[in-house]
Amino acid sequence: MTIELKGMDGAAVQVAPEALAAFKAAFRGPVLAPADAGYEEARKVWNAVIDRRPGLIARCTGTMDVVQAVRFAREHRLLHSVRSGGHNIAGLAVCEGGLMIDMSLLRGVWVDAAERTARAQAGCTLANLDRETQLHGLAAVLGFVSETGIAGLTVGGGFGYLTRQHGWTCDTVLSMEVVTAEAKVVRASETENPELFWALRGGSGNFGIVTSFEYRLFPVGPEILGGAIAWRGEDAAQVLDAFREFSAAAPRELTMVAALRIAPPAPWLPREIHGKPMAAIFVCYSGKPEDGEALLAPLRKIGSPVADIVTRRPYVQMQSLLDATQPKGRRYYWKSHYLGGIGRDAIQLAAEHASRIVSPHSAILMFQIGGALNELPPDHSPAGNRDAEYVLNIAGAWEKPEDDAANIQWAKDTFEAMKPCSTGGTYINFLTQEEGADRIAAAYGRPTLDKLAALKRQWDPDDFFRHTKGLTG
Ligand SMILES: Cc1cc2nc3c(=O)[nH]c(=O)nc-3n(C[C@H](O)[C@H](O)[C@H](O)COP(=O)(O)OP(=O)(O)OC[C@H]3O[C@@H](n4cnc5c(N)ncnc54)[C@H](O)[C@@H]3O)c2cc1C
Fold first, then answer.
1. C-alpha 292 – ligand 1 centre gap (Å)
2. For 256-313, how does the pLDDT look when each residue is reduced to its tens digit (9 = 90+)?
3. Which end of the chain has a smaller Cβ tally under 10 Å, C or N?
């Protein structure tokens, strides 16, 4: 039977049965149509606000499958999307009516402990990579929630507990294997296709499909000092002030994250605070635990904490400490700014807008990232934003579609109010569905955007990879 898929220009494309059969014969992994078992699970991404139904899902089992999927999409001029971890807030991984090229079955990791490098396939989650590298007491610079995909995170920039020491995730990548818009397999590194390599370190999914990444690794743990301290919401301003002071003076082995939200019914929090506003600081000290204990002692005595779970723990446990707050299948809407520092205005505004949170799952988060990334030249990689010291994420999260409007409005209001605190820059990976050219331009800055656009014309002149935050800003 002929199937109808959405084309690159939005019009319907008829794919003849023989063409589909030929694609399936050339492709080793499952190719799922809407009626097939497994389709529903494969199409769903982390953010339940995104409810799209691809016409076909091609579940790749190796580089050859990726090549076949790109050839098939090219030949029929199909709209397509690339899914790795499926965690992009804007749902870029899933397209309506087109072909979803699904990388999530590709989870191989190979560690070279002597060289302190790891090659990881693009479908890995952060947890998959951390698990293998921690076997050797090593770690790549990854993000804060272990179920996130390494691929989208890395090609968009990437930051986490090790960023202060080593820079954006993409600054620590050594090479990538890439399937280009012409379905060619190339390597990208400082010495092989260096301009493509540059573009893929922050330029997001606009230049090719990365099948594997080679990361530089760093000695970490396996045991670190980390956890969280929580206070009542009334103390939010005092807690943020302590966060400002401590984080500004902290050595790079210490990374701190501040969170203002409604206390969830988590076992580490006392019952009497459940459902009430709280302020928390998450910490990870990746140097010698005893040094971290001395360093953190004064912070733990600020005000009257209601809970304190800072302890020696495995690094992989620290990497998943926030997971339960970000489950797949909730409705999410984020707005974000980079901050050059935390002033008293930012503290006041954050505390004020946290008091107006409408959902028990939402939060105002400040991630400390300043350090190594500020020392690289502005054009080292498109992730740029070398003046950023903190990431402010206004993270709306809720359960029911009827609550969309109120939660989105809260995030937008908070974002607007806190605009004066921003560097003017933002993180490409945190842009929501409706954020377009002006916010993409803010993420890169004009010189980087122009250079990316020129490389796009060279590597993908037909804008084949278009289900992305594009480079038209
Ligand atoms: C709960 C949560 C926590 C997060 N925490 C952090 C954090 O701590 N630090 C941080 O930096 N970011 C964080 N992020 C943002 C994260 O980096 C982005 O959401 C990123 O897009 C996730 O990657 P993914 O592979 O899961 O993306 P997907 O949704 O699978 O893909 C998103 C897009 O990335 C591109 N892409 C994906 N795979 C490839 C590939 N193989 N080759 C080329 N392009 C590709 C494509 O354009 C694709 O459409 C978080 C996101 C969530 C939802």
1. 31
2. 999 999 999 999 999 999 999 999 999 999 999 999 999 999 999 999 999 999 999 9
3. N
